[in-house]
TrEMBL record:
Positions of the WH1 domain: 122-245
Protein name per its UniProtKB record: WH1 domain-containing protein
Source taxon at top rank: Eukaryota
One GO biological process term: regulation of transcription by RNA polymerase II
GO molecular function, one term: DNA-binding transcription factor activity
Signal peptide from the UniProt entry: none
Organism of origin: Larinioides sclopetarius
Amino acid sequence: MEHYQSKTNTIYHSFQNGNVKTCEEKPEQIYCDPEIVRKNSNNEKHAVQVIMEKYDSLRCLNTQMDNLQISSDSGDSIAKVSFDDSNGPSDDLNGDYDENNSVFENGELTEQDIVQVEVFFRSHKTYVSVCRCLANLYFSTSDGNEKKNEWELARTGIPVILLDKGETRARNKRMLQIVLAEKGSGFVLWKDVIDNLSNYKAEESSTFHTMYLSSDHRKMAGLSFDSAEAAEKFLKEIEQLTSDPLNICLSVPKQKKKGLKPLKKKEKMKQPRKSEISTPCCFEHVTSVALDDKKKLFSMATLVPSGEKVSS
């Protein structure tokens, strides 16, 4: 027998247009016998099905993808992707993704890669120009024969132009350098000075540039760029900088300074107190490396010891 505990029945009377309406509140069920619970226990499958349909977003998304068909003018349609099969195409969507290989389809780098390298080399009185694509570095030994030299692949990185104006204590000599920076860290993989004997130029292919090494002019270095447009801009910038004799270590006649008055001694500036120095502001973390990057970065694999424990 079923037992219920209900609230007191309440009767409401309302008057509308002279008519009396009676409304009786239904009893509210608060407690029930265990027999009722056993009777409704057969609905477990129904409850589980409701929960799965409500919260199983992958299944719902799979159903939507199966029902979605977008046809183009040529009659092509979007391929269906199954989310239920863990060994299906879904592994290709995220498994092969690598943040370190953020390169566009046309071979150009992302703005994040450009800024990372630029910040790495930027300093006071130093001009920095970063190429917008990757390049392969080759080395060869030149000889007097007309036969083509064999090029050996050495590294792959981002070409960078550095012009030190020589107006600082740390860099008091004017110098034009070409650097191959590592993608992902900005570390230097290779660098050389461009002087009057470097003869930096583009070969038959506009994407392959050559130059003689400053340490040994019998040896040559070659850069194979991934983008023709980026290679052309890089070449024009080097040609513009090398057109100035001061940038390629050529001596120019010194101009005599006449009528110069002796300079007065500058007063020493007082160093600021610690209380007057503010905390760092506008800080942005650009580059970070860890032991896990040894598999990705050549510099980490060669510089960091191979032992299990590395002292910090």
